Amino acid sequence: MASSDIFDVLNIQNPRTSNPGSSAGTPVPSRTPKPQVTGIQRELYNLLGDNTPPVAVQKGSKFKDKLRAIAKPSPWTLAEYEVKPSVKLLHWVKGSKELVEQQPQKSSFSKYNTKLTIPAFSEEEYLSFMGYTTPGSNPLKEWDYEEVQHLFDLCRKYDLRWFIIQDRYEGKLFGTLEDLKDAFYTVCHRYFLAKEPANPLVASLNFSKEKELERKRYLQRLLSRSAAEIAEEEALIVESKKFEMAAKKTLSERETLLRLLDSPNSDKPVSQFLTSQGMTQLYNSLLSDKSRKRKHDQVVPENPWMKQQQQFAQQKQHMQHLQELKSSNSHIQNQVKKTKKQKQEMQIAVKRKADSEYAEQLLQNFTAEERKSLGVQCHGEKLPPGAFLRSSKISTFKAATQSKVAATLQELGLPTRPAMPTMEVINRHEMLLSRITNLLDLKKQLDKLEAEKDIRKP
């Protein structure tokens, strides 16, 4: 290895080449000026330097690799299959010629080639169920058998596609589409009526030619309307809806007014006062009734809710009077000066006591049925503010006791929490829980005594 190579590996400058005297005799090669680089190219040049790394280009094929299948490919055979007795086609079938049968197979889609069941009949049957040969019968229409048979053949061929049937029909007996439908459904109705009179589908074969023509005329008039007529109809519909809403509102206001008014003819129905004449008659009768003295002949039934409200007002006045007397007496007895905070506490305590006494006074005059109907209940415990669920107030126990209570309820076939937690259900549920806990305590004591008894046995 030369010394210059060692200096190059160690990145040390060769002192021989660095000596200017030794390099004076050697000619210096002329360097061509490089073009000045600007912009992004200049920044890339500063980052990369002269030694730009080459881009690795991998040559890849754009085509797929050759399929390397180990198994032998299965053969396919161009076999014949039958679409119709008159139509036979070819298709590829997986398998060899030996496996494929020589006879043409039916198409797998032939099961979807369904046809409508159109009745077929002979000329004698046609004449019999149409009533042309029966003496004394009244035939509906004189239709030739050949024309009817031609119509049924077209219906059977084109699956009741009536526009195609009308286009293919070459007879002279039935001209329009409605005539063709009328003839077909009339003959089918007579045929099934003679063959299966108890069949409920016979009634569905009735075809009304007049209704069909009227429907088409109405549809033609509907489609031939102009834009102005359509806008006018929409405006009329909106106005009619407004009138209907106004009529409903007027009727409801009249009913409310008639309920509030003391009508002299209370035994008459309200419907007679819904007209303008009835309202005028009612107004005149009310004016005449107001001018003379009222005779309270009819006994007005007592309203229990009004009676209870009157009782509440009387009791409240009585309690307020008693409270005023008590406050005056306490004011006379206590002449000692109190602070502002003590006065506020005293007022709050007096107010609570008055409310509790008022509630107790109200509840004393109620029977159990009245309390139940009004939903009034005197709670012994302090309730939290706001609404709460009754089921949240069900008694809870320790974990061990709670599991035993749940097992007992499960044996009784009852849920842990009631499905309908009304007041009565919650009270009964609380009673049941207390009895279950008492029973569990008794059982625990009994087991303890029996264990002691077994220990004491000699």
From TrEMBL:
GO biological process: chromatin remodeling; DNA repair; negative regulation of transcription by RNA polymerase II
Domain of life: Eukaryota
Pfam families reported for this sequence: SANT_DAMP1_like
Keywords for the protein's UniProt record, in alphabetical order: Chromatin regulator, Coiled coil, Nucleus, Transcription, Transcription regulation
InterPro entries membership: DAMP1_SANT-like, Swc4/Dmap1
Coiled coil (residue ranges): 322-349
Region (Disordered): 1-37
One Gene Ontology MF term: transcription corepressor activity
Domain (DAMP1 SANT/Myb-like) ranges: 108-191
Cellular location(s): Nucleus
Cellular component terms per the entry's GO annotation: NuA4 histone acetyltransferase complex; Swr1 complex
Polar residues: bias regions: 11-25
Transcription regulation in keyword set: yes
PANTHER family referenced in this protein's UniProt entry, alphabetically: DNA METHYLTRANSFERASE 1-ASSOCIATED PROTEIN 1, DNA METHYLTRANSFERASE 1-ASSOCIATED PROTEIN 1 FAMILY MEMBER
Biological role stated in the UniProt entry: Component of the SWR1 complex which mediates the ATP-dependent exchange of histone H2A for the H2A variant HZT1 leading to transcriptional regulation of selected genes by chromatin remodeling. Component of the NuA4 histone acetyltransferase complex which is involved in transcriptional activation of selected genes principally by acetylation of nucleosomal histone H4 and H2A. The NuA4 complex is also involved in DNA repair.
Similarity field: Belongs to the SWC4 family.
Name of the protein this chain belongs to: SWR1-complex protein 4
Organism this protein belongs to: Lachancea thermotolerans (strain ATCC 56472 / CBS 6340 / NRRL Y-8284)
Lineage of the species this protein comes from: Eukaryota, Fungi, Dikarya, Ascomycota, Saccharomycotina
